[in-house]
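Figure 2 data, in text form.
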Amino acid sequence: MTFQVKGEPEVVLRPGDVFFEPEGVSISRFDAGSDGATFLGYFLLGIGEKPELSYLD
């Protein structure tokens, strides 16, 4: 899978790798290729906060 934070170099992730998406940045590339990918998202939240994902066009 290829992952890229806007303005940063691309990172190729292999099975078992981890990555971090900083708050408030745009992800310019998230490409799992023809094999697809499954990943687990873990969100650190304060008391009463709800996870939020925003998709850009």
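Caption note: The two ends are 21 Å apart (CA to CA).
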